[in-house]
């Protein structure tokens, strides 16, 4: 009883640090992943499975950015997606995930330590790239959400340029985020990108945003707006 209570208390503490800026500290994540087996940011797969399935098929190569200790890759595998590469900046997260996948016999899923701001992949490598709450970390100390700090914009644009580079033609970037469309639009619609911009919401009570950006499908008008798809029934 006491052991379980201590574990529960530890997990509750690890849900969020005392300061949001800690999310930018790699040591925070190493410590957290050393003590936490599993946690899903922005809901688990069942809440947005229908949205993912509309954009993915078993023949696709998939990259997950900032996998942490999420079970997203395992659920994708269960849906028939076997060509999956997971990355995380934390060596602890990578080691733990490799052990977990090995214990489940999921040896086809690749896991590697990598920085989302400097993706170590060749151009046009993946059909789909997914991040769930990972990019949101870059905004924790961004200041005014309508006018984020230049340092924040630089980091976000560096990430997006890397994603755009390693996507195949007609590849899809899926971003699952707290960030609202009117705040994300200026970044996603930057002139150096060729992707379209669509979004849906999911969740009950509090809604999260599910963005899909298809490379090479930007409108001739420059896609200054965005296409709002109907909110699905949850």
Automatic annotation (TrEMBL):
GO biological process: one example: methylation
InterPro entries assigned: Lys/N-term_MeTrsfase_sf, Methyltranfer_dom, SAM-dependent_MTases_sf
GO molecular function: methyltransferase activity
Keyword Lipid metabolism: no
Start and end residues of each Methyltransferase domain: 57-179
Keywords assigned by UniProt, alphabetized: Methyltransferase, Transferase
Pfam families, per the entry: Methyltransf_31
Family designation: Belongs to the methyltransferase superfamily.
PANTHER family: EEF1A LYSINE METHYLTRANSFERASE 4, SAM-DEPENDENT METHYLTRANSFERASE SUPERFAMILY PROTEIN
Protein name per UniProt: Uncharacterized protein LOC107433933
Species the sequence originates in: Ziziphus jujuba (Chinese jujube)
Classification of source organism: Eukaryota, Viridiplantae, Streptophyta, Embryophyta, Tracheophyta
């Amino acid at each position: 009883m006491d052991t379980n209570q201590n574990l529960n208390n530890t997990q509750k503490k690890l849900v969020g640090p005392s300061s949001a800026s800690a999310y930018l500290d790699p040591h925070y994540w190493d410590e957290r992943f050393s003590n936490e087996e599993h946690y899903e940011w922005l809901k688990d797969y069942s809440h947005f499975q229908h949205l993912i399935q509309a954009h993915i098929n078993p023949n696709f190569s998939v990259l997950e950015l900032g996998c942490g200790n999420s079970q997203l890759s395992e659920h994708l595998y269960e849906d028939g997606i076997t060509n999956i590469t997971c990355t995380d900046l934390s060596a602890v997260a990578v080691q733990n995930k490799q052990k977990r996948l090995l214990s489940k016999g999921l040896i086809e899923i690749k896991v590697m330590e990598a920085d989302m701001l400097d993706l170590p992949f060749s151009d046009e490598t993946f059909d789909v790239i997914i991040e769930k709450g990972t990019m949101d970390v870059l905004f924790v100390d961004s200041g005014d959400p309508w006018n984020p700090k230049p340092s924040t914009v630089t980091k976000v644009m560096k990430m997006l340029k890397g994603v755009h580079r390693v996507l195949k033609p007609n590849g899809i970037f899926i971003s699952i985020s707290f960030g609202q469309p009117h705040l994300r639009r200026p970044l996603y619609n930057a002139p150096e990108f060729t992707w379209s911009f669509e979004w849906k919401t999911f969740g009950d009570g509090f809604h999260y945003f599910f963005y899909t950006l298809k490379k090479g499908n930007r409108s001739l008008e420059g896609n200054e707006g965005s296409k709002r798809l109907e909110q699905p029934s949850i």
